[in-house]
Amino acid sequence: MHTLTAADAFCGSGGLSIGLKAAGFDVKLSFDIEETCIKTLSNNPRYISHKVMKADVREMLNGQFLKAANINKGDLDLLAGGPPCQGFSVQRTIGEDKDSRNLLVDDYGDLIGEVFPRFFMLENVPGIGGKRGRKIIDSFEKRMESLGYYCHRNILDAQNYGVPQRRRRFLMVGERRDYSSPHFSWPAGSSAPTLNVRDTIFMLPPPPFDGKDHNDFPGHRSDRLSALNLERIRSIKGGQARQDLPDHLVAKCHRVSADKIGHRNVYGRMAWDEVAPTITARFDSFTRGKFGHPEQDRSISLYEGALLQTFPDDYVFTGTKVQIARQIGNAVPPKFAKALGEAIKNSIDNVQAST
């Protein structure tokens, strides 16, 4: 059996590539439009040894992807990626269906048509498969079927695949119609989380409180909280959030019931013996979610967020604090990517064994 090949579109900081490599794929190419993401990949040769490129997906069309990856149309086993669709993120209380980033799904479809891989994977927020995003994803699926793919849809939660975090994601796997019936099966996950916050970050020492990184753990530092937010975090315990704050500490904009305005878990602490909430692009901020440390009076550090996303403990991120938090929060958790990659690999191996 030949080594299976893959490529990572919209690669971000490399979580998907790390997981696919761990699943046994030879990753040929990763590309992303963000320079800081490409620098992060380039600074981690232990995990990212393949070719990486700064490029917009449109720049990879008209044969440029095939040339860069040094492959012919139809030869790639897996093209995977998560075209940004911020218009459908739950982090946006108001999302625009016409957000230009949502059009990247169409561009990704163009790329799939040119590369014609044996499998493709599209990963995104669950909202893209919901009421407002359904037109986009239905149109994409119909187009992929016309190109010659069986399409499989699902929403999976990364906590059931070894990730210590609640992270529900919409997934579509396309399987080229090389055979009369599809062979792909979704990965079997655990019915209960296998890791929690305690398992993942409890062993770390407190970070310096002067804003500097810990000498042994890059990105493990403590951001200064305002006097008001320090009072807020000191008033709650692990697992609690804004609905548990004393009345005088509740922000004016949050005095309406959380059932009406949402944002239930802002100004919250994680719980040691539960999985973390979804690590978002602003997980480093106590005001943006249940991102407070379970015991210490601070938000979790960049380093802790990366561990909760299952990045290797020696993975190095490049950029400003905001850029690094976004790279970590937007990534596909490597352990989740590994489970998905193994499911696709098993499907291919089973077909090869039966022919």
What features would you describe in this structure?
With 355 residues, the chain is an alpha/beta fold. It contains eleven helices and seven strands. It has helices at 15-22, 35-42, 64-69, 104-115, 134-147, 197-201, 227-234, 258-261, 302-308, 321-329, 334-354, and strands at 5-9, 26-32, 51-54, 78-81, 119-124, 149-157, 168-176. The chain has a seven-stranded mixed beta sheet, with helices on both faces. Helix 4 (104-115) links the parallel strand 4 (78-81) and strand 5 (119-124). It is elongated, with a radius of gyration of 21 Å. Residues 88-97 and 258-262 have low confidence and may be disordered.
Q: Which keywords apply here?
A:
355 residues, 7-stranded mixed beta sheet, alpha/beta, single chain
Summarize the structure.
With 355 residues, the chain is α/β, with parallel strands linked by helices. It contains eleven helices and seven strands.
Strand order, largest beta sheet = 3-2-1-4-5-7-6
Mean pLDDT over the full residue set: 90
Radius of gyration equals: 21 Å
Number of helices: 11
Uncertain regions spanning at least 5 consecutive residues: 88-97, 258-262
Binned strand content: 5-15%
Helix content: 25-40%
- Based on Cα principal axes, name the global outline: elongated
Distance between the termini: 12 Å
Instruction: Please outline the major beta sheet.
Output: 7 strands, mixed
User: What's the order of the H and E elements?
Assistant: EHEHEHEHEHEEHHHHHH
Structural class given helices, strands, pairing?
alpha/beta
Total strand count, please?
A: 7
